[in-house]
Specification:
206 residues, Arc Repressor Mutant, subunit A
């Protein structure tokens, strides 16, 4: 395999990274994509002390197998956008989730201090804080997305609801105007719900 990332397409790069090709991984994630990750590092919440440390965390996040599917995050990339656009989305969402978890921990710690460790009521409260936030599992959502015939629509649903981006962030990631996004978003939700109803899973969800 050619190891010059400048002449490799996204599929070749993804395959090389998945195969633990250290040279391609270094050239692509740590050199070519450094400005992308630096922009996220500079503008979003992270505990990392440097951008390189942040890229290290993102790499682990990309390569860590899902406990339910045994597939890593990078294997979920469906080439519906450029790899760099998808990586930015992943990095931004990683920061959002990290910040959200930190806020939850801070909130729970405040409740511990206010109510004490022995409170049964607090124990129930803390458990509910970490309960599943959606009636639909991630695996179910992935299955529905895979059944959507329009991959552009499935990417909108993925970024907006699975990755948790805002309307503006989703439109930006897909390089769409907001007017175009709202039109496509409405159609994407309609197609998604049609498949959900056809599958008989949960009724209307979005």
């Amino acid at each position: 395999m050619k190891e010059n990332v400048e002449i490799m397409d996204d599929r070749m790069i993804v395959n090389a990274i998945l195969l633990r090709d250290q040279k391609v991984t270094q050239q692509y994630l740590y050199i070519k994509c450094y400005p992308l990750f630096k922009s996220v590092y500079d503008n979003y919440y992270t505990d990392c002390q440097s951008c390189i440390e942040f890229i290290n965390e993102i790499y682990v996040h990309l390569m860590m197998p899902n406990k339910n599917t045994d597939l890593c995050k990078l294997q979920s990339f469906q080439f519906g956008s450029t790899l760099t656009t998808w990586l930015k989305t992943v990095a931004v969402y990683y920061c959002y989730e990290h910040y959200r978890r930190k806020q939850k921990v801070s909130f729970v710690e405040e409740k511990i201090e206010a109510e004490g460790f022995q409170s049964d009521r607090f124990s129930q409260f803390a458990a509910s804080m970490y309960a599943e936030e959606s009636i639909m599992s991630k695996n179910d959502l992935e299955a529905i997305l895979g059944l959507m015939p329009n991959k552009r629509y499935s990417m909108i649903i993925r970024l907006r609801y699975l990755e948790g981006l805002s309307n503006e962030e989703t439109a930006s990631a897909l390089q769409m105007s907001m007017d175009n996004f709202y039109n496509k978003h409405m159609r994407a939700k309609k197609q998604f719900n049609e498949i959900v109803n056809k599958e008989g899973r949960y009724g209307k969800l979005l």
